[in-house]
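User:
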Amino acid sequence: MLIQQITAEKLRIISEALEHAEERAMRFQERHDRVLSQVCSYYLCNQQVLEALAESRVAMNEALGFAVGLREMQMRILCAYPDEVDGLNLHRFAENTSSGSATQ
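Assistant: Predicted structure:
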């Protein structure tokens, strides 16, 4: 029972962090798209715009990498404790922790 509680708490923490990480990655993607749109619409090859685009891409890739790392951690926990994690309860848990998420 204690292992189930610990596993559920780990999954809750990771799910919350994952939700925030995915939202952050989405904001970086939107920023990147806006900058790219400005470049395309004005046909500018301005050094500042190109630098902003490059920085935006780096930030977006870092945010996505962080989200992927959290997803992998979540999967390792699920694989490490297959007997302790009930599929139905996990499904309900995932619904409760991700309800209201902009990425869902």
